[in-house]
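During the no-cost extension, the postdoctoral fellow (Dr. R.K.) reprocessed legacy sequence entries with the updated structure-token encoder. One reprocessed record is reproduced below for audit purposes.
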Amino acid sequence: MNETLSRLADTGVVAVLRGVAADQLIEITEALREGGVTAVEITADTPDVADLLGEVAGSFGDEVVVGTGTVLDSETARTTLMAGAEFVVSPSLHEDVIETCNRYGVVTAPGVMTPTEAIRGYEAGADFVKVFPAKTVGPGHLGAMKGPLGQIPMMPTGGVGPDNAADYIDAGAFAVGAGGALVDYEAAARGEYEAITETAREFTRVVEEARDD
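Re-encoded structure tokens follow.
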């Protein structure tokens, strides 16, 4: 397994940061790291995303694996991976994004909903697939896809929280992606970063326990 993919699997939880304020980024990332979440995905529609990627990579080094999400085209993929993104995620299937990431040896995942999309993305060279939006279909759908497509690592994102993360792990997910259920931006604005750490700790505990069952 690719080293970056292994690191995503090890943490089990990928934090999706959308529109994060530059002056809160390092503190939020540190709060997540302290809670055991060591994978951070900064969405490409975040202002100055290239600078933010570089800031996280420079501040945490190997302690945090940093990637970019909401990548819709090859130009954005190349810009963000050149800025330091170690993995690239899309909400939908874009074969040009996969091709660009393969060219530079960067882990990539398209967003999929059906078995046809999953196998198409994997055959195009994706390292894993993002089942999105997961809340629309639930853990049963992911589990049903894993039946015939057990060779494809799957990460549900969208509506995943501490209350259902274990269900997705039980269904066969190698990791889960979480945004608002994991990162409380209002708490961050108040400087209450320990709240984010506690939620991260709960997320990782749930995932670890589900894996041990």
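The chain has a mean pLDDT of 97. The two ends are 23 Å apart (CA to CA). The remaining legacy entries will be reprocessed before the final report is submitted.
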